[in-house]
Amino acid sequence: MPGGTRTRVVGAAILDSASAPTRVLAAQRAYPESLRGLWEFPGGKQEPGETPRDALVRECREELGVDLALLDEVEAADPEGWPLSGTAVMRVFTAVLSSGSQGEPSTDPGPALEARVRAGDDHLAARWLPLADPGAVLALPWIPADLPIVAALLELLRTE
Ligand SMILES: Nc1nc2c([nH]c(=O)n2[C@H]2C[C@H](O)[C@@H](COP(=O)(O)OP(=O)(O)OP(=O)(O)O)O2)c(=O)[nH]1
């Protein structure tokens, strides 16, 4: 769509480890009613003047109370991102939790950091899904537009 009128959304595929990931975090939306109960990548809308990566770090801090170290983009065919419903597009990045204390990204956050993730007001639940069981990951009731992204993520991690 010309003129940059698309809503730009960013989402994080938060992994338990950068070097040898075994789990990815999914979050269950609390609102709006039409999306309540469906699963998604934590994130939200990019604000004017913000880069996608800055927006994603901000959103995850606000929604989950965690700091992220962003890794790679789960690339869509369209460089503007994956198509969502309406005219929205979403760019998705893999990430790990960062301790935030030294400003150093952690390559393996470990159980203590994983346990730190809390579903805030925006989410009913947050769940770590096993990457070794792609069927179980895909069987979750994701927002329908997310399914091709989840499949691409699983493929990306399988071939890394
Ligand atoms: N965060 C997120 N949003 C998604 C995903 N898939 C998908 O279709 N969406 C849609 C749902 C929403 O219509 C839109 C994101 O809006 P949002 O409500 O999360 O954004 P926000 O936190 O900035 O919220 P707000 O201030 O506008 O209320 O993108 C996904 O995996 N993650």
UniProtKB/TrEMBL annotation:
<dbReference type="GO" id="GO:0008413">
    <property type="term" value="F:8-oxo-7,8-dihydroguanosine triphosphate pyrophosphatase activity"/>
</dbReference>
<dbReference type="GO" id="GO:0044716">
    <property type="term" value="F:8-oxo-GDP phosphatase activity"/>
</dbReference>
<dbReference type="InterPro" id="IPR020476">
    <property type="entry name" value="Nudix_hydrolase"/>
</dbReference>
<dbReference type="GO" id="GO:0044715">
    <property type="term" value="F:8-oxo-dGDP phosphatase activity"/>
</dbReference>
<dbReference type="InterPro" id="IPR000086">
    <property type="entry name" value="NUDIX_hydrolase_dom"/>
</dbReference>
<keyword id="KW-0234">DNA repair</keyword>
<dbReference type="InterPro" id="IPR047127">
    <property type="entry name" value="MutT-like"/>
</dbReference>
<keyword id="KW-0460">Magnesium</keyword>
<dbReference type="Pfam" id="PF00293">
    <property type="entry name" value="NUDIX"/>
</dbReference>
<comment type="similarity">
    <text>Belongs to the Nudix hydrolase family.</text>
</comment>
<keyword id="KW-0378">Hydrolase</keyword>
<dbReference type="GO" id="GO:0006260">
    <property type="term" value="P:DNA replication"/>
</dbReference>
<protein>
    <recommendedName>
        <fullName>8-oxo-dGTP diphosphatase</fullName>
        <ecNumber>3.6.1.55</ecNumber>
    </recommendedName>
</protein>
<keyword id="KW-0235">DNA replication</keyword>
<keyword id="KW-0479">Metal-binding</keyword>
<dbReference type="GO" id="GO:0035539">
    <property type="term" value="F:8-oxo-7,8-dihydrodeoxyguanosine triphosphate pyrophosphatase activity"/>
</dbReference>
<dbReference type="GO" id="GO:0046872">
    <property type="term" value="F:metal ion binding"/>
</dbReference>
<feature type="domain" description="Nudix hydrolase">
    <location>
        <begin position="5"/>
        <end position="152"/>
    </location>
</feature>
<keyword id="KW-0227">DNA damage</keyword>
<keyword id="KW-0515">Mutator protein</keyword>
<dbReference type="GO" id="GO:0006281">
    <property type="term" value="P:DNA repair"/>
</dbReference>
<dbReference type="InterPro" id="IPR015797">
    <property type="entry name" value="NUDIX_hydrolase-like_dom_sf"/>
</dbReference>
